[in-house]
Give the backbone structure.
Amino acid sequence: MTGTLRRIGAVMLRHWYLIAGSWPRFLDLCYWPMVQMILWGFIQTFMAQQSSFFAQAAGLLLAGVMLWDVLFRGQISLAISFFEEVYSRNLGHLLATPLTIGEYMAALMTVSLVRTVVGLFPATLFAIWFFGFSVYSLGIALVAFFLSLIAFGWAIGLFVAGLVMRYGLGAESFAWAFIFALAPLAGVYYPISILPSWVQLLSAAIPASYVFEGMRAVLIDHTVRVDLMMAGAALNIVWLAAGIAGFLIFHRQARERGMLLQVGE
Amino acid sequence: MDALVNPIRDASEAIVVENLAKRYRDVVAVDGITFAVPHGSFTALLGGNGAGKTTTIAMMLGLVLPTAGRIVILGRDFATHGKSLLALMNFQSPYADLPRRLTVRQNLKIYARLYGVSAVKERIANLARELDLEALLDRPLGELSAGQRTRASLAKAFINRPRVVLLDEPTASLDPDTADWVRAFLSRYAKEAGATFLIASHNMLEVERLCDRVLMMKLGRIVDSGSPKELLAKYGRTNLEDVFLDVARRGPLEVAK
C-alpha cells in the first residue's frame, strides 16, 4: 500500500512540477471557468430582470454552469494529464516502471480532482462577490453533485485517454467532442422534461442528468432529491466500470500493437 | 540456429529468452528467438534497422506483448512477475523521452519515487557526479543539447541501481569523447553492481569494447552469435563493422558458404 501511494504520489508530483513551473498552464486552469461564470452570470442577471421565474430561482444558470464545469474539467483534466505523457513521449518510461496500470489510473483521477478543484474554486468565490450567488448554498447536496459529476468525467476521460493510447493523437479531439455531445442531453440549463421523449431515454442513461435535475430541485423547490442522487450514483458505477474497462482493453491492445513506445510520434 | 545461443536455465543466467516471437498481422518483427544472458555480462543485440532489436527490448519491458515465447529475468517469469521485476530493471531508449519542461532533477526525483529509491538526494547527487550532470540538474530538459539529454536519460536508467539494464543505442547522440566516457561509466557500474547489460547498438566500436557476447539479428532472427573475438575470427575480419556488413548483405557464414 505504501508503495502504491508513493507511485501515485510520483505521478502527481510530475504534474505539480509541470503546472507550478508554467504560469500559463496554471492560469489556464482558472481562466475558462471564470470566463464561463462571468458570461452566464450576466445572462442570469438579465433573465432575472425579465422573468419572475429566474428572479425567484436565483443562481439557476450560474449553478448549472459551475456544475457543468465540474464534469467538463474532471474529464478534460484527466485526458490532458494523460496526453502530457504522450506529447512528451514519456509514456514508455512511465509504464516500464513498477507503476501498475491501476495505480496510473488512480493517479490520473487524483490529478484530475486537484486540477478541477483548483480551477473552479476561484470562480465560485468570484460568483459570490460579483453576482451574489454562492454555489455552496446548495449545501450538502453540492458534495454529492460534485462527486457524481467528477466520477462521470473520469469515466469519459479514461475512455478517451485509452482511445489515444490505442489509436494515437489522431483521437485527441474526442476529449472535447464526447463531452460536448452530452451537454444537450444532460439538461444543464433546462429540465429533461422539455426534451423529446426518445431523447429523454438517452438522458436517463447519463448520471449528469440526475445531478442537474437534483440541482433544480434544490434551487427551485428547496428539496433534496435523494432518489435522483442514488440513481446517478448507480449509473456512475456502471459508467466508471466501463471507462476503466475501456482503458484496460485499449492498454492491452496498445501493447499488442507496439503502440506504447510509438504513441506521440 | 538456437544451438548457437544455447540458453542454460541455471542461476548463472540473468536473462533467458525462449522462442520469443512478435507478429503484427503479416509482419514478423521477432521470429522465435532464444538466447540467454549470463549475470554480470554485457551482451549486444546487433542488427540493421527492422532486425527486431527494439521490439525484443520492448517485450522485455512489458511495453509490447509477445505473440509467443517466454522471458525469464533473474529467475522469474516476466509474464507473471513483470512489475516486481521492473523494480530491479531499467532502460534507456531513443523512442522514449523524459518530459522536457521539467528539470533534470525533477525528472530524476519522480523516477526515484516510482522505483522506490531510498536516499534520493544522495542518489541523484552521485549520478550527477558520475554523468557530469551537476551543472545541469536544475535546467529544464528541453534546454539541453541532445548529448546532455542522453546523459540525463542514462541517469534515469540507473536511478534505481538496476540489476538488469536494457539500453537501446545508448551513445547514439554523443560526441566520441562523451561516448567514450559513458562507456567507461557503464563498465564501472557493471563491475560495482554486478549488473547485467543487454545493449542494442549500431556502434561496432562500442560493442567491441563493452560486450562479452554479440547476438547478430536479421529479420527478427538471431542469425549468429559469439564473442567479438570469435566472430572476427569466424568471418576473417578485423572489425565488427565488416562482420555486420557480411551478415547484413550475405547472411550468416553458414548461409554464405
User: Anything to note?
Assistant: Chain A has a mean pLDDT of 92. The interface with chain B takes residues 3, 6-7, 9-11, 13-14, 17-18, 21-22, 84-85, 88-100, 252, 255-258, 260-262 of chain A (CB under 8 Å). Residues 101-131 of chain A form the longest helix (31 residues). The radius of gyration of chain A is 19 Å.
